[in-house]
Amino acid sequence: MRVTTVALNRRERSILVQETADRSMLRSFLETDRLYSAYALCDLDDREFLRTRWGVALVAGKPIAVVLQYAGYSPQPIFVMGENEGIEVILANVIKPRTAYVAARPEHLAAIAASYRVEPGPAMFRMWVDAAHFRPFPADVNRLLPVEIGEVNRLYQLGLASWLPASAISDGLYYGMRLGGRLVSAAGTHVISPNARLAVVGNVMTHADFRGRGYATAVTGAVTAELLRFCDQVVLNVRADNPPALAAYRRLGYQVHLTFEERLIHRTELPWSGWTGAFRRMFARKES
User: Fold this and answer.
1) Burial, 113: exposed, middle or buried (Cβ in 10 Å; 0-12, 13-18, 19+)?
2) Are 249 and 219 in contact (CB under 8 A)?
3) Which among 97, 204, 212, 285 could bridge 187 via Cys, Cβ 3.0 to 4.6 Å?
4) Contacts for 272-281 with beta carbons within 8 Å, 24 or more apart?
5) Rg (CA), the chain
6) Superfamily of domain 3-122+262-287 in the CATH hierarchy
7) Residue 6 pLDDT
């Protein structure tokens, strides 16, 4: 495991940055804001953890920042949390994808921009609900089965079942609304963590010809109700400039936790930066 010590003179302290697989340490840090870090907390479960890489920045042995990189997608998603100085040195030394899709608080964009060109994007809301705040929305919906993945992907305007595999439904939780036998609205989950008692709702879609009738509220409500049987909180993401979606989720009792950014980023290293980095590391203190 590579370990690099970086001294930040402006704060008169040394930051130790390294890759880590210490789930106990990561969980403790992420739990300081479990609603913001919901995806990352869920990724600590066995099913997801092997698909992840984690960088941590430590000061006097205590974490001040974490960066998560999730494999399997392109661009690869990354998540950042903590102090900007720590985020900056992790992205400079440990977690270094060429292109990524980052989730970050607005105040973290400056740290990300030290190593990446950050494309513009809309502000996002992280919303959440628990059993005490949830308001059911009774409707005639049905739980979807893996054999229905073709219909689900056609609803998502993806043609053949080439994006969402059947395992997305079997491993997750999906509900749909049908009219005349046709699937016109669906909602599901991105990730579920029995350990953290958290889940993330996603892939909410209603066919354009059937919007404005409450179908998205109905299917999202069904998924949420089922999840709250074994989760303490359920979260979802929504664009801040999408009033109809916000109204639908608020009708179910969801409320905004914070505003965050989802941005495409591109590494800005010069072609010879790898050589200069190698020379710098020759003189940096290393441990293993």
Assistant:
1) middle
2) no
3) 204
4) 281/4
5) 21
6) Gcn5-related N-acetyltransferase (GNAT) (3.40.630.30)
7) 63
